[in-house]
Design brief:
This protein is of the alpha+beta class and 232 residues long. It is built from five helices and five strands, in the order H-H-H-E-H-E-E-H-E-E. It has helices at residues 4-58, 67-98, 105-120, 137-158, 196-205; strands at 123-129, 162-170, 173-180, 209-214, 220-227. A five-stranded mixed β-sheet has the order 1-2-3-5-4, with helices on one face. Helix 4 runs antiparallel to helix 5 (196-205). The longest helix is centred in the first third of the chain and has 55 residues, at 4-58.
Length: 232
């Protein structure tokens, strides 16, 4: 049984706690607004700059077929892939700041699937059998960027109508396959395809393996294999 003064005291504590919670929520809201604004500024500024860089690089033509010019041509093609990678990084960072990105890789891939269906009229079928507990935040982030770059290249160059993304875990490794029914390309020219060098570099940083198979008229398949912390 509480006395009158006990009830008054506890009521005061409850009111103070409610005010404190309300103030914290208000501060969190203000912080989120500031982060969203910062996200937009970062996105608009850096995307604009990198688009300009991309246009300049795409306008460069290297004449002749000498060994020196071939090396220069390869260097320029490699540089052309960098703006796409920067775009992916900027979008990812912006998503973290405005709260639109999560570490749930399957959820992010589902969002990506919906975007590609709507924007590019490409049917993306996702078969994902990976427990999120197997993936660190860093691995989720890097893998998402690699898969997004793979399907972005498909949308830009392959004229595909379907993309299949399959993910599973076997023997302590995460295996991901991205395949399309597009026009394919000559594997001898693989190093000249924008974005592939970037994807391979990311996989090497993760200690993973990157393999690509393509043939003119028969589509493209990218296989990724990455060691994970836990096995099933």
């Amino acid at each position: 049984t509480f006395t009158y003064w006990d009830k008054r005291r506890y009521s005061s504590f409850a009111n103070l706690a409610a005010l404190a919670i309300q103030k914290m929520q208000s501060q969190q809201h203000e912080i989120q607004l500031e982060m969203t604004d910062l996200s937009k500024r970062i996105h608009d500024t850096l995307i604009g700059d990198t688009l300009g860089l991309s246009k300049v690089l795409n306008s460069v033509e290297v004449p002749g077929a000498s060994a020196r010019n071939e090396r220069l041509r390869y260097a320029i093609e490699t540089a052309k892939a960098m703006p796409d990678r920067l775009h992916n990084d900027v979008r990812y960072i912006s998503g973290l700041l405005d709260g639109s990105h999560t570490d749930d890789l399957q959820m992010e891939l589902d969002k990506l699937s919906m975007i590609f269906r709507q924007a590019f009229k490409i049917d993306m079928d996702l078969k994902w059998k990976v427990d999120p507990a197997h993936l660190t935040p860093v691995l989720s982030r890097e893998l998402f960027l690699v898969v997004r770059e793979a399907i972005t290249n498909t949308a830009k160059h392959a004229h595909a109508t379907r993309i299949d993304v399959i993910g599973n875990v076997q023997s302590g490794r995460l295996h991901v396959r991205v395949s399309d029914n597009g026009k394919g390309f000559d594997r001898q020219q693989v190093r000249r395809v924008n974005g592939l060098a970037s994807m391979q570099h990311r996989m090497e940083e993760l200690g993973g393996e990157f393999n690509i198979e393509s043939e003119l008229g028969k589509g493209t398949t990218i296989d990724l294999s990455i060691p994970i912390l836990k096995s099933v």
